[in-house]
Amino acid sequence: MVVSIGFIGCGGIAQQHMSCLRQIPEAKIVAFCDIDINRAKMAASSIQGSRAYQDISEMLRAEKLDAVYVCVPPFAHGFEKLIVEKDVNIFVEKPIALTLELAKDIDSAITKAGVVNSVGYMWRYLDTTELAIQTLEKNGPIGMVIGQYHDPYWFPPNHWWIEKAKSGGQVVEQSTHIFDLARYVAGEVSRVYGELDTLLLKDVPGFNVEDVSIVCMKFKSGAVGVVTSTCASRKTFTGTKISFLAKNVVAELGGHAGYAKIYWNDRVEEVNAKVDPYLEEDRVFVEAVRTGNTSGIRSPYHDALETLKVTILANRSSEEKRPFLVG
Ligand SMILES: NC(=O)c1ccc[n+]([C@@H]2O[C@H](COP(=O)([O-])OP(=O)(O)OC[C@H]3O[C@@H](n4cnc5c(N)ncnc54)[C@H](O)[C@@H]3O)[C@@H](O)[C@H]2O)c1
Fold this sequence. Notes:
Elements: E1 3-8, H1 12-21, E2 27-33, H2 37-45, E3 51-53, H3 56-62, E4 67-70, H4 80-84, E5 89-92, H5 100-113, E6 117-119, H6 127-139, E7 142-152, H7 164-167, H8 170-173, H9 176-186, E8 189-197, E9 212-219, E10 224-233, E11 239-246, E12 250-254, E13 259-263, E14 268-271, H10 277-291, H11 301-320, E15 324-325
Parallel strand pairs: 1-2, 1-4, 2-3, 4-5, 5-6, 7-10
Antiparallel strand pairs: 7-11, 8-9, 8-15, 9-10, 11-12, 12-13, 13-14
Helix pairs in contact: 1-10, 5-11, 9-11
This protein binds nicotinamide-adenine-dinucleotide.
Nicotinamide-adenine-dinucleotide (NAD) binds at residues 8-14, 33-36, 39, 71-74, 76, 93-94, 120, 122, 173.
């Protein structure tokens, strides 16, 4: 069976998935939908025989799709029920929504429909992530988690990212990858406390997301953790990484670079990733749709809801100046 795929949202991350799906013989992209029809047409022009739509319902009516990739900005979620209620399998880019109410509603619809579902937390698919998990299991327990998402400011004027109501802010939209890896490796978070502020980029027109933040976490295992984020760093002081300090080892995962560094008392082992995590998450999703076997999916929608919960509560904690239990 070849899996027929439609896209909703044809921007940056959609291009990334298109390039991966082209490398998977069992996948065929047949339709593109974007509120900006020119973007849908542009994407369709790159794949022979595919069609462009501006309206989601029209695409779902006209096409016989096995799966849809949802690649819209955070504020634009909310139509997912239309997809799954038609028994169409779904891949959703992170963050899955901007409110827990909406994400829970979509999660219920997915569960009810019983469709294959996956969320774009691609770092879970790195072989180096697996190596860190196995090393930590043998040399644990984990006592402390230290993560960072440090970027320079690079967004063009009027980009949706710089408006909190559209992106959810850096913790919800970007550092979510670090929070997700923290949960994937160290287990569930029980308490969260955040201090988020806008201090360095106040002069950027329209910018109202936080540009510096720290989020402290207590894990159910007892481990403590912190994630620092900024989008206002210098180009020479950037990087995404997360370190897990365990009884007999420290394992560090290098976010975008995908490396693992394993620190022992007498040596440091550095391992580079052998897999492309985007290709791997797409390959696993397509295979799950094709066979119905979902055991390879490492980030189902229901699990991504928990990462959203931690990041939203970190925001609320900062607003209300108190820690929150993650129920
Ligand atoms: N996993 C990753 O590494 C990764 C990387 C980049 C972006 N993302 C995520 O992907 C999502 C999209 O980011 P992007 O960089 O591709 O954004 P983008 O702005 O480049 O593209 C988004 C596209 O969605 C379209 N769109 C908006 N609302 C729509 C709607 N209601 N119906 C149809 N189309 C609509 C826009 O017109 C635009 O073409 C974000 O949530 C982002 O966090 C994930």
